[in-house]
Amino acid sequence: MARLVPFTIDLTRHEGTRLAAVLDALGPDWDPVEIYAGEAEAARRLYADLDPNQQATYDVLIAAGALPDSPER
After folding, report:
1. Among candidates 55, 64, 33, which has minimal Cα distance to 73?
2. What is the Cα–Cα distance from 59 to 43, expressed in whole angstroms?
3. What global pTM score does this model have?
4. DSSP 8-state symbol, 72
5. How many H helices and E strands in the chain?
6. CA quadruple 23, 26, 28, 32: dihedral positive or negative?
7. Considering the chain, what is the average pLDDT of its residues?
């Protein structure tokens, strides 16, 4: 019967390398605050000017918890 040998691996160094590669790929112009603000504006525009039927559906989805309620609306 084969004997099991303990095997451990520390992913901390690999995770640091992976994070550095991700940040390098994003580049120096990446601004997370600007990105999130743009996403919030896109969501606001997406749900703006709904007709009554669309608004009723939107309200049902908010009440069901399928969409986050946006206080900016």
Report:
1. 55
2. 15
3. 0.52
4. T
5. 3, 0
6. negative
7. 89
